[in-house]
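Anyone up for a design puzzle?
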């Protein structure tokens, strides 16, 4: 069937662009990568990129969706089912800070994802229903609109903390403590409640988990690429 063949070629082209884009983003960052470079890495002409994606941001959106599924899955697997939802939030968000610290291209990628319209909207709307599950005890009267608006605030805090590299003074432990304290206050969690959660989060081996999230994302994209080759 001719239509089926066209569809299969379209899927193959898209998967090749995703793989090429991810490879280049991880090597040199989002800003320094062009659509022409991605197309050439995929073995196609520069103009062919736009047959797969509207623009570079659309490709980043696809990668952001894959990455966020990976980090949520990793955090959930690290905790027993009966653990505090506050600790799950601390791990999910703390993982992002560790991922951004793995390399400068990854920092660029995550900060960009929290900045561009489509990717930041995906992040904010993905987090909003989770916020009700996590913070409903302290925000019983908050509706979805209010939670979304507060997510805009915590996402801004996330972006700011990810964008600043750790050093000998601003250590990862200090960064996570400051960051989580800000976010928990946004959602009206009392300090006596969130302090033990922050202590538990900084004691966990989140850097290894962050590296595993990156590796899992790379594997997922590679598997999609290999199925069309």
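Challenge accepted. My sequence:
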């Amino acid at each position: 069937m001719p239509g089926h063949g066209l569809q299969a070629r379209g899927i193959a082209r898209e998967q090749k662009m995703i793989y090429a884009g991810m490879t280049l983003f991880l090597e040199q960052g989002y800003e320094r990568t062009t659509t022409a470079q991605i197309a050439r890495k995929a073995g196609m002409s520069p103009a062919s990129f736009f047959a797969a994606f509207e623009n570079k941001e659309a490709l980043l959106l696809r990668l952001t969706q894959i990455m966020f599924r990976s980090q949520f899955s990793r955090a959930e697997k690290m905790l027993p089912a009966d653990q505090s939802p506050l600790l799950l939030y601390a791990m999910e968000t703390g993982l992002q800070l560790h991922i951004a610290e793995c390399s400068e291209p990854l920092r660029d990628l995550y900060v960009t994802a929290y900045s561009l319209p489509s990717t930041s909207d995906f992040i904010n709307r993905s987090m909003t229903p989770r916020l009700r599950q996590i913070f409903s005890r302290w925000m019983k009267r908050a509706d979805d609109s209010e939670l979304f608006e507060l997510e805009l605030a915590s996402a801004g805090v996330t972006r700011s903390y990810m964008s600043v590299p750790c050093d000998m003074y601003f250590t990862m432990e200090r960064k996570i403590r400051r960051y989580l304290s800000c976010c928990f206050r946004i959602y009206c969690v009392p300090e006596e409640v969130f302090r033990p959660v922050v202590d538990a989060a900084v004691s966990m081996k989140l850097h290894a988990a962050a590296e595993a999230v990156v590796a899992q994302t790379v594997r997922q994209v590679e598997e999609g690429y290999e199925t069309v080759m």
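A detail worth pointing out: The chain has eleven helices and no strands.
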